[in-house]
Amino acid sequence: MKMSLDKNDLVDYVANQLNIFFLDKNPIDSGEVKKYLDLALQRVEYCFSWINSKYYNDGSNTLFNHLHADHYAVFLYLLSNTLYRNNADLAVCAKVFQLNRYLHSIDVYYEVELPDIFLFSHPLGAVLGRARYSNFFRVAQQCTVGNNKNVYPTLEEHVSLYPGSAILGNCVVKENCKIAAGSLLLDRNLEKNSLYIGNPAGFTVRESREKDPIWR
Fold this sequence. Notes:
Blueprint: E1 2-3, H1 7-21, H2 30-48, E2 63-64, H3 69-85, H4 90-104, E3 118-120, E4 127-128, E5 137-139, E6 144-146, E7 154-155, E8 159-161, E9 166-168, E10 172-173, E11 177-179, E12 184-186, E13 194-199, E14 202-207
Parallel strand pairs: 1-2, 3-5, 4-6, 5-8, 6-9, 7-10, 8-11, 9-12, 11-13
Antiparallel strand pairs: 13-14
């Protein structure tokens, strides 16, 4: 993977950001980040390798640019989740998660298990809760995946949420479904190859068989 910073500089960059944002009496030791950096970057590289965009692949290499906000938001989520999976200090997990919120206005808790292959498309204001996610998941700005009466959705592969859309509650969203901009799917299942438009007060479900061309 071609990176805009080498690994040592990236470790220092993250640790410095954490210590600037969190001025408590427990500064982050860059060694805690470095210990799990390779695991997190392996996950970043695999995820980005499936994205069909010149910003993610140059034809020969997978790209990671720390100054590309969508790249860095994915990296910080995967770093926080990798730390958590490997029983790192929960305070460090929480700080990396919070740093992502501060920088990108995205709320994906370190315990949430996003799939191996997903895409943040300008995800400002997105909140992704403890749903069951599958590969080729795409989320845009101001989207929400969350619970209703403590029940979370299940999303199969190739689910895309367009700006301002939400999936809440007891929903099974089957393969290759799209939630249109500004729409709310609440406690309702969607069959394969569906485009959902509207909200519980009035909605339309159309057939949509085309796969999102962003995926390889």
